[in-house]
Amino acid sequence: SGSRSSKTFKPKKNIPEGSHQYELLKHAEATLGSGNLRQAVMLPEGEDLNEWIAVNTVDFFNQINMLYGTITEFCTESSCPVMSAGPRYEYHWADGTNIKKPIKCSAPKYIDYLMTWVQDQLDDETLFPSKIGVPFPKNFMSVAKTILKRLFRVYAHIYHQHFDSVMRLQEEAHLNTSFKHFIFFVQEFNLIDRRELAPLQELIEKLGSKDR
């Protein structure tokens, strides 16, 4: 799959209208509107956990895609020559198929690789079946965890390297709400290892303490 230029960072993954997953997404949006994010991330009664995680993963991908899209002009080869989340955390890209050995690359390149890779996973009907009754594969949970772990890195990069741009664009409330929703979701189902969350640990604690 070819890399996508950051100019075309638009979510391409749509959940088909009329499908059960579409209904789940609508449910998620309705509960989000109530303002109680802890409640909004819980598995709705009688629903399949894999399907709930799939719907939300697609939704987070689309959200992060749009958030990153607002700051792509500030995230360049020269401003961000390495993919980092502050001075202590640096990420190297490998997808295990095309790039087996992790490579050091600029943040825009890394995020382009990452988003293209996630898109390919989401479009793979054997991993993310969109038809009712098609079972999720045995390795679904590990694939979803890898996707979410990588999407977290985009939030971490935005917060550490581009928060001033986010503030100038007056997008911080949007970013914070999206990230808080993401964190509550991965915490609810234990989807990202605590060590992976370290770059934003203080922020995560702050967001969580407001909701106790």
UniProtKB/TrEMBL annotation:
Keyword ATP-binding: no
Keywords: Kinase, Metal-binding, Transferase, Zinc
This protein's name: MOB1A kinase
Lineage: Eukaryota, Metazoa, Chordata, Craniata, Vertebrata
Keyword Nucleotide-binding found: no
The encoding gene: Mob1a
GO molecular function, one term: kinase activity
Coiled coil: none
Chain sites annotated for binding Zn(2+): C75, C80, H157, H162
